[in-house]
Amino acid sequence: MYDYRGTVSLVTGASTGLGAAYADELARRGSALVLVARRAAALDEVAARIRVRHGVQVTTLPADLGRPEDVTALLEEIDRRDRPVDLVVNNAGMSAVGPFLDGRPDRDLDSIALNVTALVTLTHGFGRRMAARGRGGIINVASTAAFQPMPFQATYGAGKAFVLSFTEALAEELRGGPVRVMAAHPGATATGFFDRTSHTMDAAAADPADRVAARTLDDFARGRPASYPGRPAFRAMTWLPRLVSRRLAARLAGGFNRRSGVDRATNAPGAAGHTPTSSGRM
Ligand SMILES: NC(=O)c1ccc[n+]([C@@H]2O[C@H](COP(=O)([O-])OP(=O)(O)OC[C@H]3O[C@@H](n4cnc5c(N)ncnc54)[C@H](OP(=O)(O)O)[C@@H]3O)[C@@H](O)[C@H]2O)c1
């Protein structure tokens, strides 16, 4: 069993949603934290709440992980600190919504930069440092969306499929070694995931973020190569695409997103842009 006590965990996308829940749950289990997201003020609020609740050391490092220079600066900043990172939770992620050919592809490209490029760079950067130290772990937050093409969220589904395949391949490469990686596949989770779009989530059909976070960390502690931290129906939904043709899987997912209204959703104006942090940018 992985023991979180006395470790240092870095969580990306920790200013709200699942990332804030991962941070809280890691702190509850005794880990010190490094929290990363763009909005410095929101990060500071999460950090203050966690310090009061759990009494652990919490550092905030505002960064726009969609910018390669911020990702490099984050790795360099961690190298300057006296405590190395034991566990990285690559949680920051976003989705473009609506018909791919409508409008500009800015938010699609931003999501690839964040969900794929930043995740690979951080996994490589922290993974090498952990390998050199002889221990460490990385949790890559993918999604049940990884298991089939996602019409009207085409780049999101494709990006999460990348995270799934990449993390499974890496887990096998690293099997038996000192660094462990695990992919987490939440289903619908009650967060502000669609906040920068016209779409809204049915909160009643979504899992609470704190439960999803706790189950992910339980699975990592047990040494599982993958985590399905949502309700059982969400895991079952990942089996269906493996049993039918890829064409039918795409049809079914497209039908689901049409019924949910994602086909009519739009990305909020400016949603693709890089939100300035309220204090220093890394
Ligand atoms: N909610 C769901 O139903 C669901 C289901 C399956 C998987 N997931 C995955 O879970 C993860 C967390 O999603 P969530 O639902 O918690 O979404 P969320 O509420 O929108 O939170 C996203 C987090 O990512 C940060 N972020 C966004 N762009 C960033 C950037 N360029 N650089 C650094 N940080 C950035 C945001 O903070 P700032 O705005 O402050 O940067 C925020 O803290 C994502 O990978 C998502 O794909 C979510």
From TrEMBL:
<feature type="region of interest" description="Disordered">
    <location>
        <begin position="259"/>
        <end position="282"/>
    </location>
</feature>
<comment type="similarity">
    <text>Belongs to the short-chain dehydrogenases/reductases (SDR) family.</text>
</comment>
<dbReference type="InterPro" id="IPR002347">
    <property type="entry name" value="SDR_fam"/>
</dbReference>
<feature type="domain" description="Ketoreductase">
    <location>
        <begin position="7"/>
        <end position="193"/>
    </location>
</feature>
<dbReference type="InterPro" id="IPR036291">
    <property type="entry name" value="NAD(P)-bd_dom_sf"/>
</dbReference>
<dbReference type="InterPro" id="IPR020904">
    <property type="entry name" value="Sc_DH/Rdtase_CS"/>
</dbReference>
<dbReference type="InterPro" id="IPR057326">
    <property type="entry name" value="KR_dom"/>
</dbReference>
<dbReference type="Pfam" id="PF00106">
    <property type="entry name" value="adh_short"/>
</dbReference>
<protein>
    <submittedName>
        <fullName>SDR family oxidoreductase</fullName>
        <ecNumber>1.-.-.-</ecNumber>
    </submittedName>
</protein>
<keyword id="KW-0560">Oxidoreductase</keyword>
<dbReference type="GO" id="GO:0016491">
    <property type="term" value="F:oxidoreductase activity"/>
</dbReference>
